[in-house]
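Many introductory courses stop at the sequence. We go one step further.
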Amino acid sequence: MEGDDDSLSAQDFYVQAPSIWIRHPKSYSPTSSISSGRTSTQNTPSLILFFSWTSASPSPISKYSADYIEMFPNVPIMIIMTTLSDLAFRSDRHKQSVLAPAVEYIISRHLELNIHTHCFSEGGSHKAIQFAKAYLSKTGNKLPITSLCLDSTPGDHQYHRIARAFSLSLEPNALLRILGLIFAYLMLTILWCFYAFYGPKKNLMTRIRRGLEDQRLWNTQHIPRCYLYSMNDSLIKYQDVERHARKAEKKGVPVLLAAFHESEHCHHVREDREKYWAAVQWTLQRSGTHDSSGVEIGKEASLTAQAPAPVISTREIKPPHPVARRGN
């Protein structure tokens, strides 16, 4: 694992606390952060919050952080990781307490101006919600995010999918995988019984879906967001993602759906890197362009007019005209 950690250390990240990595460029200042030519300085974030998928290791995460560093070389990046036990079994109080150093970092460095957030899978979304709760508890304010990217999330309550996600993070050793799966299914069975007794509102997946829309935590109803997901994802159904997006669209949220066709869970960037990052840039460049009443969405022109990204095989909800396609 030590060698794996080098992938983030090589990008000048340091461990601030367990599962929390930070890259703070020496040249950064809250009022004069500079972006690369790939993005507009007008929508340069003050901080990039990256919530990884469950049991992610530094090496694959570093591939995403490398692109963010290229886009925003002088913007701080905070990477927050999670594990299955943290996702499913630890109390909210414990989860929020371990995030306190990260909250303190944002406050002490005055990074609350314009926060871009990127969440992966249920583990990342759940951790982001816990982070917003920790921030609210400390400051009494909503977490001031201004753009949101959701990769392979949110899903719905199907516990065999959580167990499968956990199995993908296990060591290749056959015995360890078998023991790990037995443990996972045992714990998830206990969890299922708990939720069956206390009702669907206590269900983890239900709480994630609702937490992403909880206006006590953040103003997600009026910030642009993109959903990056796959028709071939064996862990998260694309129908669940699109259903969540439609609900957001009805509330006036600027939404972009970036659908991939062959990629597996949290591997969409491998299918089409250009398409993936064009969707992220669309979201970033829409930040700060809306008001409290929301923004009209669903127009093909918004993809090209709002962001200098190539026309890609991506669609917004309910487009009035077919989006021009390239590839696929």
